[in-house]
Amino acid sequence: MAADTATTGTPAGARAPRQAPAMDLAELIADRQTRIVVCCGAGGVGKTTTSAALALAAAEAGRTVVVLTIDPARRLAQSLGLTELDNEPRKVDISGGAATGAPGELHAMMLDMKRTFDDVVTAHSTPERAQQILDNPFYQALSSSFAGTQEYMAMEKLGQLRASDQWDLIIVDTPPSRSALDFLDAPNRMGRFLDGTMIRLLMAPSRTGFKFASAGFLFFSRIISKILGGQLLRDISAFVAALDTMFGGFRERATATFELLRRPGTWFVVVAAPEPDALREASYFVDRLSAEGMPLAGLVVNRTHPPATTALSATRAEGAAEEVAESGDDGAALAAAALRVHAERMQQATREQHLADRFTSAHPDVALRTVPATAGDVHDLEGLRMMAAALTGPDHDTPTGTPRTRVLPARRG
Ligand SMILES: Nc1ncnc2c1ncn2[C@@H]1O[C@H](COP(=O)(O)OP(=O)(O)OP(=O)(O)O)[C@@H](O)[C@H]1O
Ligand SMILES: [Mg+2]
């Protein structure tokens, strides 16, 4: 049967959408120059799974890899041997795989945000001072729940892993934020907060013995005390004063970790679902990376729904379903149902292709790769291997013959 061209969501006569360049993740992770890969994206799109799958593929390609996961689903964590939060990488047994050549090593860890923060404090102060900070109620609240702390600590941990030089590739998952941009914004936001004007103002009286505090400031400070409570204010002041003497400002630290991401050898992989919101997020993020001068490997459109065949369009499948159903023959109901399922899948794939094409027309140079949804979730090494094959396999070697840059085959001509 001839391929029906009314399947790609392109109106007849319109120019076929530009095809996204293919993303070669196999080469990227095998390249010894690649030292850090950061997987970013909107909430729930598959950042953690993509990170773990890429890490496994890199280890099977011979590299010594550590994957820093954040809040992995319980079953995935278990299959990576992460049964408790211990904030240190654990070696994963990957011996069951079909790795060719010299196998590498896979280590996995879950970020323990509070432990990472505690370690920073301990490493940068005297034992008494560290204890003072660790016991401070404001510190306790900040280290476990302040928005942005998780992103900041992910960067902090990345810095530590990179400094240890024990791994030749670090794959970083990012926190389940509402927006992918939070990852780039949070360290600065937190730096500004801890280092910022309000905190300095709050601290001014204790530092200068009220000498320079204006009447206006005292009034302001009293109001804040009233709202926040005097004790909390004292806790904050004591905490920030202690931190400040410790390592000369969070902002500088945030800048340093940020710079790490700009160094050669770091790549960002943006993950999105084939849905308008996730792809819009991905667009913002891609623009931001480019504005910040950070290298983008490309976009992974995860959990697509390519149909089993594109030889039969949705319209023709619907028509055929009706005809078959009307015939009333034996098995007609079943055949009609199968045709309708196919029609639905074609419609869904067409929608997904349309969204991917829209992204590509806005970002024609961004390489793209689609990863089909598997029947169940991805929670064991076998599932990760299947996902890794979709991420790193050759562009044209798919069961449906559809290039991995697309959900549906491109229109010919
Ligand atoms: N290609 C896929 N096919 C089927 N299921 C998938 C696929 N990719 C991811 N999943 C499943 O989707 C769920 C969400 O994935 P994951 O936890 O990796 O997303 P995330 O972006 O890290 O989410 P969060 O923002 O909450 O951290 C998981 O249950 C995972 O197993
Ligand atoms: Mg996650």
Summarize the structure in words:
The chain is built from 16 helices and eight strands. It has 413 residues and is of the alpha/beta class. The chain has two domains: 267 residues, P-loop containing nucleotide triphosphate hydrolases (Rossmann fold), CATH 3.40.50; 40 residues, no CATH class. It has an eight-stranded mixed beta sheet with strand order 3-4-2-5-1-6-7-8, with helices on both faces. Helix 13 links the parallel strand 6 and strand 7. The longest helix is centred in the last third of the chain and has 31 residues. The two termini are 18 Å apart. The relative contact order is 0.17. The N terminus is likely disordered. Magnesium ion binds next to helix 2.
